[in-house]
């Protein structure tokens, strides 16, 4: 990767390295209940420590309004220490004399976690004075928190402007995947977008139709498109007031030579309920008193054919109400097909955002995709074509 400065270019030995990580882990009664985010940043911490750098971790936790003991990172320091299998010091402020003193006492290879950056209003305001206070504690800055990179905060963007800045390994993997997925993809490039609503994904759809060769639309949002094209959708979830928006997206796709693939059949039921009695109808024959809860088998065949045509696949959002059986079948079948093509070396598959990770886990294939991003907001903003401040600041 040449577009971003990475740890490969950083001389960390003997240096104080401020490392922004995502430690916004789920907790219950002071215990970390899912350590995925900790595990993701271990390689970066380990590498800097092994190379003789002094690792000073910066992170936010929750959305505190000022200092709040309930949102302290102290218990997280213990969890990081356990996973890293070495001591992790903790200071109850991320700036000031106590932090400075502990930083001075660090030896090469030591690891320190500073308290929640959001205890200071200057963090979210990206206040230059707060940035300077943080910058005093380090010689270099490494950002390993892609999930926070859509925010221009002091610890995600400001620091990169005042210290030599590099992408950590988790950030680098994410940027690599995103570059392969949309910036410089192998074509044909196909996107699958599903989920509940068009309204939350208008920017995303408008960006994708100008970038991809084919766009598969599934899930509840497909109903809005089907309705916009003049077909009946019964009691299906839809945003009928967005018919004009849907048509604009279809027109834009036509202009950009992007094929739009809509469902040709739907699995329908009278109620949104697991195990509900259901039947598959052609998309031009949806009964007035039923709702579409999943794409039908003919649609799955078309989606699988689109995946076969693709060299690269970008996926966001389930194709149906995947949380309730049997309406998970379309999503599961398409996900397994994409995973199989990826395993065969025929497809680069990048997925992420919202419920997508849960849907791929449900299908049992999250590990078989080329890359699955767990960064909700940042991943979606990237799909919308927005530039992410924390990423821009790392460009070489
Ligand atoms: P999103 O957060 O926008 O990705 O939407 C995910 C949600 O969309 C999931 O909770 C699905 O159950 C829901 N969903 C997908 N397809 C349908 C559908 N046909 N009818 C109702 N809900 C759906």
UniProtKB/TrEMBL annotation:
Pathway: Carbohydrate degradation; glycolysis; pyruvate from D-glyceraldehyde 3-phosphate: step 2/5. Its EC number is 2.7.2.3. Substrate binds at residues 22-24, 37, 60-63, 118, 151. The keyword Zinc-finger does not apply. Its main location: cytoplasm. ATP binds at residues 201, 323, 353-356. GO terms for cellular component: cytosol. InterPro entries: Phosphoglycerate_kinase, Phosphoglycerate_kinase_CS, Phosphoglycerate_kinase_N, Phosphoglycerate_kinase_sf. It is an enzyme of class 2 (transferase). One of its GO terms (molecular function) is ATP binding. The gene is pgk. Monomer. It comes from the Bacteria. It catalyses: (2R)-3-phosphoglycerate + ATP = (2R)-3-phospho-glyceroyl phosphate + ADP. This is Phosphoglycerate kinase. Gene3D superfamilies: Phosphoglycerate kinase, N-terminal domain. It holds the Pfam family PGK. One of its GO terms (biological process) is gluconeogenesis. Belongs to the phosphoglycerate kinase family. It is found in: Cytoplasm. (2R)-3-phosphoglycerate binds at residues 37, 118, 151. Keywords: ATP-binding, Cytoplasm, Glycolysis, Kinase, Nucleotide-binding, Transferase.
């Amino acid at each position: 990767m040449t577009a971003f400065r990475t740890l490969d270019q950083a001389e960390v030995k003997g240096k104080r390295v401020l490392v922004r990580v995502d430690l916004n882990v789920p907790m219950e009664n002071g215990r970390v209940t899912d350590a995925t985010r900790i595990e993701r940043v271990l390689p970066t911490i380990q590498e800097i420590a092994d190379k003789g750098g002094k690792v000073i971790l910066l992170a936010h936790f929750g959305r505190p309004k000022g200092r709040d003991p309930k949102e302290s990172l102290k218990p997280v320091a213990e969890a990081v220490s356990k996973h890293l299998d070495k001591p992790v010091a903790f200071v109850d402020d991320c700036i000031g004399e106590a932090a400075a003193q502990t930083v001075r006492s660090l030896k090469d290879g030591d690891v320190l976690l500073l308290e929640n950056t959001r205890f200071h209003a200057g963090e979210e305001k990206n206040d230059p004075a707060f940035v300077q206070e943080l910058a005093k504690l380090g010689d270099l800055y490494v950002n390993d928190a892609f999930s926070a990179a859509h925010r221009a905060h002091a610890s995600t963007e400001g620091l990169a402007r005042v210290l030599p800045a590099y992408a950590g390994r988790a950030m680098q993997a994410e940027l690599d995947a995103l570059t392969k997925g949309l910036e410089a993809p192998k074509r044909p490039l196909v996107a699958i977008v599903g989920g509940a609503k068009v309204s939350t994904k208008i920017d995303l759809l408008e960006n994708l139709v100008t970038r991809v060769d084919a766009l598969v639309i599934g899930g509840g949002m497909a109903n809005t498109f089907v309705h916009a094209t003049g077909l009946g959708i019964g009691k299906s979830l839809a945003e009928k007031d967005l018919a004009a928006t849907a048509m604009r997206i279809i027109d834009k796709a036509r202009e950009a030579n992007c094929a739009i693939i809509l469902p040709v059949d739907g699995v329908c039921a009278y109620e949104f309920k697991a195990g509900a009695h259901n039947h598959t109808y052609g998309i031009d024959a949806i009964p007035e008193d039923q709702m579409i809860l999943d794409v039908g088998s003919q649609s799955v065949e078309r989606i699988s054919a689109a995946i076969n045509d693709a060299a690269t696949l970008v996926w966001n959002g389930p194709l149906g109400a995947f949380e309730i059986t049997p309406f998970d079948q379309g999503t599961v079948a398409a996900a397994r097909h994409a995973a199989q093509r990826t395993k065969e070396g025929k497809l680069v598959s990048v997925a992420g955002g919202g419920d997508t990770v849960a849907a791929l886990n449900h299908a049992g294939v999250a590990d078989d995709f080329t890359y699955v991003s767990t960064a909700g907001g940042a991943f979606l903003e990237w799909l919308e074509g927005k530039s992410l401040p924390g990423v821009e600041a790392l460009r070489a």
